[in-house]
Amino acid sequence: MQTEQLTYAIVTPYSMRKSRTGGIVGRLISRTGLDLVGGRMFAPSAELTKRYADTIVTETDPRHRATQELIREYVLKNFTGKKNGQHPRVLFLIFRGPDAVERIHHVVGHIVHERTSGETIRDTYGDYITDDSGNVVYFEPGVITEFAPGAVVRDLKLWAEFSDSDGGIVDHAVPFPPGAQIEKTLVLIKPDNFRFPNLRPGGVIEVFSRTGLSIIGFKVHQMSVAQAEEFYGPVLSVLEEKLGPQSGRENWESIIEFMAGKRPSECDRDQRDAPGTEKSIAIVYQGVDAVRKIRDVLGPTDPAKAPPGSIRKEFGQTIMVNAAHASDSVENVRREMAIIRVEENNFKPLIENFYRRQ
Q: Which is it for strands 4-11 and 324-326: parallel, antiparallel or unpaired?
């Protein structure tokens, strides 16, 4: 029996700015078959950047060592400071499963100029351009990871160390003109996207990228029954009025079960507060008129009434199983972000607890 491993992939600042995040996430999940168990946005400090870069070059084979040297220089140049007024943002994703390190290696791929098939993530989203003399004139890896299991452990522990100081809601990273009406909004990619490893989570993120908004927060979340009750509390009275007290309550409990994995009427107090069995991804977007822009791309609650190209038309099935949730007002953004504790650092304990059990 293969032992489970943790491994990681970092979506680079350039991939984030070019809205390639969804395509990369979709491939990482669907082509590896691994479980996406953690994620956190970082605006890396100079100290984290240097300490991470110092670990990258390990190969003895001259060809692969040269690529690692390019990656080290890329990290030092692009992970900190400012580019066009923006502090670089990276999305750090953690995957778990048997042979996880090699699976991510296979899907991410090496990056050399001969490979242009699009088979790997770096084939599609990376660039390795040389001049006639063979000198590299442009290099973009698309994603960054580590291919040696021991090095993966080292890197995960390093980023966990900086996950409070450099990670979380990085709303300081993206500049806006003075006086711009900037909003944050919350998206939940719902559990129906995670029934098996597939492209859907990445596809949803890909469609949201049409808004031009910036991702500033990311959390893999298992909503508890108590959180789901509070989150969907305002819906209960609407359903009871529309369907009657008994039928309304039953429908509301079905929503809780869909999001958390258990009905409130079947839970004792301890079960209500425990993390649920269903997975969601919480993403915080930021920009001008963010709430409306996200809602427009999401589409109406009923997928049958959603316009072509909207998320719920593309990925939704029913009024409940409809791919994603998005806050409908600035007030609800604050309420919903507080309920699911979107700023909570569940990244660090995930790493610490995994290796404590080893």
A: unpaired
Structural domain count, the chain: 2
Length of the chain: 358
Whether residues 133 and 17 fall in one domain = yes
Residue by residue, DSSP assigns 129-157 as EE-TTS-EEEEE-SEE---SHHHHHHHHH
85 within domain boundaries: yes
Q: Please, is 307 exposed, middle or buried when counting C-beta atoms within 10 Å of its C-beta (0-12, 13-18, 19+)?
A: exposed
3-class secondary structure, 203: helix
- Give the three-class secondary structure for 315: helix
Structure confidence at residue 110 (pLDDT): 82
Q: Do residues 143 and 125 lie in contact, with contact meaning Cβ atoms separated by under 8 Å?
A: yes
DSSP symbols for 162-199: TTTTTBS--TTSS---TT--EEEEEEEE-GGGGSSS-S
Q: Are residues 160 and 266 in the same domain?
A: no
Q: What is the pTM of this model?
A: 0.95
Does residue 190 fall inside a structural domain?
A: no
Domain range for 256? 229-273
Q: Which residues carry out catalysis?
A: 325
Helix (H), strand (E) at residue 6: strand 4-11
What's the pLDDT tens digit per position in 304-327?
Answer: 999 999 999 999 999 999 999 999
| 264 and 129 both lie in a single domain | no
Pick from 96, 99, 81, 71: nearest CA to 12: 71
